[in-house]
Amino acid sequence: MAKLSLFERRRRRVRTAIRSRAGERPRLSVHRTGKHIYAQIIDDKAGRTVAAASTLGAKASGANVDAAVQVGKDIAAAAKKAGVTSVVFDRGGFLFHGRVKALADAAREGGLEF
Question: pLDDT tens-digit profile of 86-112?
Fold first, then answer.
C-alpha cells in the first residue's frame, strides 16, 4: 500500500475512536510537517479553536524534538489561560513517536490531562 493510504487509515481509526469518547472534552489536535509542528485545542461542539501553538511562534523554531517540547508547553499554558484542563489527544494519522510524543509529554507536564 502507498504511504498516504496507510496514513489515511490510521487517521480515520484515530478520529473514530476520538469521536466515540470526546463528547464533553475538547480535543488536542497535532499536525507536523517537515519544517514545523502545530497544536490546537478544538471545541467540536462549538466548532471553534480554543487555543493554538506552533513552531511559527518566536519561542520555538524548527521541526526537532526540542521545538515540539516547547510547543507542548505553550499549548498547555494557552489551555490553562482558556480554562481547559482535560482534553482528548488527536494525533491524526501520525505515529505516537518522536516529535508527537515529545509534544504530548510536555503538554502533560504543563498541566493538561489526557
Answer: 999 999 999 999 999 999 999 999 999
CA angle 107, 104, 62 (to 5 degrees): 90
Give pLDDT tens digits for 39-72: 999 998 888 999 999 999 767 777 899 999 999 9
- Record the cell numbers describing residue 12, joined without a space: 480515520
Strand ranges (E), the chain: 27-32, 37-43, 48-54, 88-90
User: How do strand 27-32 and strand 88-90 relate by DSSP bridges?
Assistant: parallel
The two most distant CA atoms of the chain are separated, in Å, by 43
Q: What is the dihedral of CA 96, 97, 99, 105, to 10 degrees?
A: 70
3-class SS of residue 89: strand
* pTM reported for the whole predicted model: 0.89
